[in-house]
Amino acid sequence: MKVAIVGTGYVGLVTGTCLADTGNDVICVDIDKGKVEKLNNNIMPIYEPDLETVFERNVKAGRLKFTTDLKEAADKSEIIFLALPTPPGEDGSADLSYILGVADDLGKIITEYKVIVNKSTVPVGTAEKVNAAISKNTTTEFDVVSNPEFLREGLAVDDFMKPDRIVIGTKSEKARKIMEELFSPFVRQGNPIVFMDERSSELTKYAANSYLATRITFMNEIANICELIGANVDMVRIGMGSDSRIGKRFLFPGIGYGGSCFPKDVSALHKSAIEYGYDFKILDSVMSINETQKTIIIGKIKEYFKNDLKGKKIAIWGLAFKPDTDDIREAPSLYIIKKLLEEGVTISAFDPEAMENVEKIFGNKIELVKDHYEALKDADALVIATEWLLFRTPDFKKMAKNLKAKVIFDGRNLYDLNQMNELGYYYRSIGRKEVTGKK
Description:
Elements (H helix, E strand, L loop, with lengths): L1 E5 L3 H11 L4 E5 L3 H8 L10 H10 L3 E4 L2 H6 L3 E4 L14 H13 L4 E5 L7 H10 L6 E5 L9 H6 L4 E4 L3 H11 L9 E4 L1 H32 L3 H9 L20 H14 L5 H13 L2 H9 L8 E5 L14 H11 L3 E5 L4 H8 L4 E2 L12 E4 L11 H7 L4 E4 L6 H6 L3 E3 L11
Parallel strand pairs: 1-2, 1-4, 2-3, 4-5, 5-6, 7-8, 9-10, 9-12, 10-11, 12-13, 13-14
């Protein structure tokens, strides 16, 4: 099939690459000439495991191409995906200007039937707005379809190739048959393509992400209670997750959720509820609690140092909002760094993939080093903000030699409490007892 992808960000690039891998001819469009030039020269703008291999295979086969010419892409395609940014406005609502701008342009370009697919995460009613924007400039037949993405950063290629389900919102039988043909290679093992109306499809994405964000937030609250009453959140999590009605996923406590999806989608759903006159109290709490949770570890650090952090040096392991990505959008590490800098702390930090992105924000205000042990040199304490595999089984003796003192504040609960105590570390984590390291 002939497919165009408008937007070569995270979602667009993964979508285009994976669709090309099932034999489709895919042409991706972006207004950034420099980015398109790099992509045409096989230079990846993002880090995502396995994506580069699939990307290179399909570029070499001639199935995946890149251009800045929207008309060229539209003329050559029967399906046009809109994978454009929908950044949150100051009031939390999703900014649809990029999507509606392209929709307006498409109305001036298309001369034969097209399926226009909203792949971006958009508020309820966006398909109707896109339809209206195209219709004002053309009488050519077309259909607007909602097809929200459910890609986890770090696992996006696997998620696209082996989806739990594919959600497609359309009332058009013609569009339904085309979309079913396009996605049938990805559901050969029997996972469903779920067809519904456009508004239900748009809401499904927001509902799913908001629910997962709520689970995470609930466990963070449980963790905070555990610390107060002397319980262990690890045990509570196992006890809860063993209940088949609840399940084991998204029950790990920590220092809040971040990334490009959960914060934006929760905020957008909350804003949509307000617009329709509904007071979504749960989401009020989720957003408020998550903001507090991102810097909850600062209180633990200040308590240990008796509220005197000025002149201290603290190492940070992990800057991305989660492992296996270079994405730092709404990452808790950024909030922690900002607070520590305000307290007069010197910071040395390491992340396997995200340091270049962090440097764009903080410049020379923090030291970014090439090795996680190097970050510990002469540091008064270590803060763990991202649960990269690299950090799970470190050389604790080497760590102790580099640190001024054996002090760890772990926002991701990576280490065993008994082991930390035996090794003589002062160790604070989330929802578990304080370990002093004193025999």
